[in-house]
Amino acid sequence: MNKHSGLLSGDHQPPCRAQSNTSTPIVTTTTHQLLFYSIQSTKQHKDRKKRTKNRALSGRPDTPRAADRFPGGLGQSATRPTLDLSLSAIPIPRAMPRSEPDSVDDQDPHNAKDDKKFRSRRPANTAFRQQRLKAWQPILTPKTVLPLFFIVGVIFAPIGGLLIWASSTVQELVIDYTKCAAEAPLGDPQEMNAEDFHASFRSQDISTPLWSRSITNRTLPGGVNLPTTVCSLYFNIPNDLEPSVFLYYRLTNFYQNHRRYVKSLDLEQLKGKAVPKAIIANSQCDPLRIDPDTDKPYYPCGLIANSVFNDSFSSPVSIGGSRNEPYNMTNKGISWSSDKELYKKTEYKPDQIWPPPNWKERYPNGYTDDNPPPNLHEDEELQVWMRTAGLPTFSKLARRNDHEIMEAGSYRLDIDDYFRVNLYDGTKSIVISTNTVVGGKNPFMGIAYVVVGGICIVLGAVFTFAHLVKPRKLGDHTYLTWNNEQPSTAAASGRDATFGGGA
């Protein structure tokens, strides 16, 4: 028998040595396996060549296509493959790389051995991340819902009543002076139209205000002389007003909440930084960025600063009897403290910037050393204006007195009339007012509370009556949807409707 017959048959025999002293290599089990794999590979290769040859012979034997398939032509036998027993000729199976984790351990983010290969995206095992937080889902029954309606109504209605009462205790005087520059008489004052004022005081002794106008020259800061229409309002305070006393101006039909208007400013400018011209040219201050004549950036740029309310108010002067004493009111402390911290004195030099178009009367020659740009940190009237209102009718604080009582009597208030509301069909008014712990005079919040409380009480009464007259049994299966779609007898017997209508 051939000495390799055992190897070729795949039998695993123990290693043996020859009896002679010649050096014979040791044949191991691994060598058996390698020889077996090599023979199997050679056999498969022969089978493939045989099938290829048969397919080629099925066509014409003299075709070049068939002859080109095998070297030496179809009539010659192909070269017989030799048996290569080297280890390099034997294919060794390799492990495929894993693309996904195949066990819970592989997904563990704390598994150090796979931390570099795979990072788990599984949420942390916490109550919040795994949505296991405790929750209370009350069962809505008449015993829980009906008392809730009455409780809300009983709480909201009195609160609303208190808010309405607090608003009614605010004393205020509203005078519309929109037409003063056109209709008020020159010289002696005359009564205003009744619809142009509104008063709310504890005392009912209210008289109609008077008005007049005059033309004068005002010397503005920087030595600029400006012809000015002065509107003088004469009004009566029927009873003492306890401090604090506030002076507001109120505008109507002015949409400060327009999107283009609201974003038309540069915060860095307002913070006092000397923003370069190139940045201002691409800022949100459109359309008021760069002055076309001087090619200088506007300061402050944007629509909000350009349209600032520029009517000037004096302190009310008492004109009753022999007294002509002013009731001193100041424009300090009228802006929010957070706003005041935002605005800083500018780092610009006067020759680097140009005032907005609507400021040309105050700065006819632009900014100069004698008439420098305003210090925005101290200009609280501008700070109040820059905080845009959410509605087209709004009031903004202009003056205040937190220490002195405004005694009953007659007063005169002079207003330098510059702001043109006729350009957009609006109105402007002054409001002299006190306040309470809930703010100024505005009954809306109280009315809203009363309405909500009343609705809850009415709904509670209606549902209580319905529950007493025709109560509904809790957990009654007859109210289920599928029980209403077919007879209950069919559902109980298990019979169901079919497409054909049969059983």
UniProtKB/TrEMBL annotation:
InterPro entries, sorted? CDC50/LEM3_fam
**Is this entry keyworded Membrane?**
yes
What's the domain of life for this entry?
Answer: Eukaryota
Spans traversing the lipid bilayer: 144-166, 444-469
Record's protein name:
LEM3/CDC50 family protein
Matching entries from Pfam families are given as: CDC50 (PF03381)
Please list the residue ranges that the record marks as compositionally biased, kind Basic and acidic residues: 97-117
| Recorded GO CC terms | endoplasmic reticulum; Golgi apparatus; plasma membrane
Q: What family name appears in the similarity comment? A: Belongs to the CDC50/LEM3 family.
> Where found?
Membrane
Tell me, in one coarse class, where this protein mainly resides: membrane
User: What is the membrane topology here?
Assistant: Multi-pass membrane protein
Q: Which UniProt keywords apply?
A: Membrane, Transmembrane, Transmembrane helix
- UniProt feature, compositional bias: Basic residues: 43-54
Region annotation (Disordered) maps to 1-24, 38-80, 92-124
State the PANTHER family in the record: CDC50, ISOFORM A, CELL CYCLE CONTROL PROTEIN 50
